[in-house]
Amino acid sequence: MADLRFDSQPPRFTDVPRPRRAEGQWAFGYREPLNKNEESKKNDDPLNVRDRILYVYSKRGFDSIDPADLRGRFRWMGLYTQRKPGIDGGKTGALEEEELDDRYFMMRVRSDGKLLSPEAVRTLGTIGQDFARDTADVTDRENIQYHWIEIENVPEIWERLEAVGLHSIEACGDSPRPFLGSPVAGVAADEIIDGTSALREIEERFLGNKDFSNFPRKFKTAVTGHPSHDVAPEINDVAFVGTVHPEHGPGFDLWVGGGLSTNPMLTEKLGVWIPIDEVADAWAGVAGIFRDYGYRRLRSRARLKFLVADWGGEKFREVLEKEYLGKELVSNPSPASPVGHRDHIGVHPQKDGNFYVGVAPVVGRISGTLLVSLAEVMEQFGIEGARFTPYQKIVLIGARPEIVDALLDRLDEIGLPGRPSNWRQNTMACTGIEFCKLAIVDTKDRSRDLIAELERRLPQLDAPITINVNGCPNACARTQVADIGLKGQLVMHEGQQVEGFQVHLGGATGLDANFGRKLRAHKVTSAGLGDYVTSVVTNYLVDRKEQESFAD
Ligand code: SF4
């Protein structure tokens, strides 16, 4: 197996012509930082901040924190300062980051597709209760996100997490961000291949590894062997997607260069087949290309998708094979197409005769207390474990056939239904103005109210319709790939600027992956959101032809 560590085997960088204009690409010798983020990373490896948090800042308090750590390197430990309460969305762009900073932190704990025991779920819950004012959101990258964290408590939180195999390392920052793994890996009856061992190898070899701690920007990974492609592989930087090669059998397609935000792009399929024990090497090769050839001059062009768009898939594959893997990859004549719905809500068969059960919190908003209740339910019914999903949902693994009905009833009672309405099942929302410094509008509470309103006005729906709600022009809740994507902004209403949304309609991932159309005229106030969505959905239901989906 090739050793892909940068310090032991630097790539040759021979086959790609030096660009005319400096983009700060390390591969061409541009090592001088071209912006303040690059400078901060060069001054000190961001992973070094862990020791300062443990041994200095947590002892001396918030005011002792070096600003370069606070607004830069803390992210590599999954810590961001949260938004100071009471600043309205109209001031977001006008204020400096320091003016928006609270003295409390958001902490993101990565699950990386792991199967969480009842003990791990209880630990996540009690941390929320003890240190985070009972907050705990499930995010669309399978994380638990806490708020109101104080720096003094971080060491104890980390200790409790580590005791159950969890942590927050590189949950943010220009790093290998939380990995998406199939929530039903190793258990679903219709699985093509179980990617668990590959994901664990990537984590063990490359997470917290200084060869991969300074990317040009964030680097998002997804691995799934489920036929539904349940990890949104179209919009990750690198994705390994289960497929069956006609000669070699089950393995993974390699897709690169997806991402949303402003300039959304879908992944480029490289047309190769990777066996499971070579996935980690291929990951390191793609990550190495991003680290070495990725654009570092402008943050707005620093994602892998821009490099892939400029190079094209063929050249990317060639560089990967020649400079990073030292061998040709197997071509794949049968690229994987997704089959079925991806969110795993409801009751589904496992390989072993048991069932897995997907449940739907409201837009990922749960609490420490609810996680503790969930742990109790898991123990009471002998549930093997839980996984978080990329749709802000939770899947319980290992329900025996004879307990499924009673389990569903009990989950309903604690507020985690396995038979939710369309609106609850298919709505996601980002953090929004409650805690996010970039937000312009409220998202979580607004979405909860919207779901309740739609459940009342449109209770019966025979085709799923997805709604993704974002608090600003970024796309943390994937605005562009929802049937109805809502992007927070201020809109004019009766001569006043008020909270509202720019609407995107008809986006999708999966078989018909595409970005929703931004309809310039479609801007809606937060207060008018219920009426607007009701009217759009009613028009679709009246006008649709047979089998025509909302995106069509
Ligand atoms: Fe914050 Fe904007 Fe992301 Fe929402 S979409 S979490 S408001 S940056």
UniProtKB/TrEMBL annotation:
Cofactor: [4Fe-4S] cluster
Catalytic activity reported: hydrogen sulfide + 6 oxidized [2Fe-2S]-[ferredoxin] + 3 H2O = sulfite + 6 reduced [2Fe-2S]-[ferredoxin] + 7 H(+)
Classification via Gene3D superfamilies: 3.90.480.20, Sulfite Reductase Hemoprotein, domain 1
All copies of domain Nitrite/Sulfite reductase ferredoxin-like, residue ranges: 101-164, 348-413
Keywords noted in UniProt: 4Fe-4S, Heme, Iron, Iron-sulfur, Metal-binding, Oxidoreductase, Thioether bond
Annotated Nitrite/sulphite reductase 4Fe-4S domain residues: 173-327, 426-552
Highest taxon of the lineage: Bacteria
One Pfam family of this chain: NIR_SIR
Any coiled-coil regions, as ranges: none
Role played: Catalyzes the reduction of sulfite to sulfide, a step in the biosynthesis of sulfur-containing amino acids and cofactors.
Family, per entry: Belongs to the nitrite and sulfite reductase 4Fe-4S domain family.
Name the UniProt record assigns to this protein: assimilatory sulfite reductase (ferredoxin)
Native organism: Nocardioides panacisoli
Upper lineage: Bacteria, Bacillati, Actinomycetota, Actinomycetes, Propionibacteriales
